[in-house]
Amino acid sequence: MATEPEESGPLRLWDVSRRRPAGSLPGTADWGDPVFDRTSRTMVISDVTLDRLRAWDVAGRRPLWDYRVPRGLMVDGHAFSPDGALFAATLTRAGNGSRTRGDRLLEWDARSGRLVRDVPLDRQTGSIAFGAGGRTIVCGDGRILDAVTGRQRGGAFMPSQSFAVSPDGDRIAVGGMTGRIFLWDAKGPSPVPPALHGTMEQIDALAFSPRGDVLATVSEGGTVQLWDVRAGRRLGGAVPLLADLGLSLAFSADGTRLYVADQSGELFELPVDGELVARQVCARAGRTLTRQEWARYLPGTLYRDVC
Length: 307
Fold this sequence. Notes:
CATH superfamily of the largest domain: YVTN repeat-like/Quinoprotein amine dehydrogenase
Oligomer: single chain
Helix content: under 10%
Order of helices and strands: EEEEEEEEEEEEEEEEEEEEEEEEEHH
């Protein structure tokens, strides 16, 4: 995890599994959003003040490469490929008066910084993520682009800047303004009914578990929900957090925990694995469920000592 200072200063790195600082990187007055590859080995961050993309070796705390964004352009979306080998960014005009050549898709070798692709696009993309084995680019404007040619594949899905792509690239989850979540088959794309109904607040962020079977969402008010992707139903109750705006979330590598961060740098850790949840509840209660409590909360289920 990386947190940005309110004023000019270093970007702080955190080892969330051990709950301790992991170092810092030199900062400027205006960082953009950092993005990590799936192994957290490489991080790229947009330096808005200097109009640069900078890549870092996280473990070694050393710069790998940087790219100066051409004058008149700005970074629109950026993402790592599923295997972490490529880093992609879309550029768009920084203002209506800019005469710079318009929207573009660029892809680099994530470790060396060698530019491997620079193709023109017909319009702005919004946020992006890699799809289907790194062969496509999923865009917040509802398009799916060929990662090599930049051309649109198939139709379009519901546009939103709050979306997530499953690890296998088969599903796209889109957050709605009124709290509904829509699943799409990426091959069409085509909708996968029914829509998921949770909180009435706008969905700010979504994330699939490493296996792609669970979807996590967080609303603008800080309400976290988990969803069974295949069954299309919510798992457990909603979890309200006293969080600031600018929420983001991610699963741990083993899928047993969900991390939610807000723009103030506060991090919430939520156990989502059944056995882990049971252990923590047992530790907090200091005892197991009685047979009477089991009958009340789990009627028709064979009693067992969960602690």
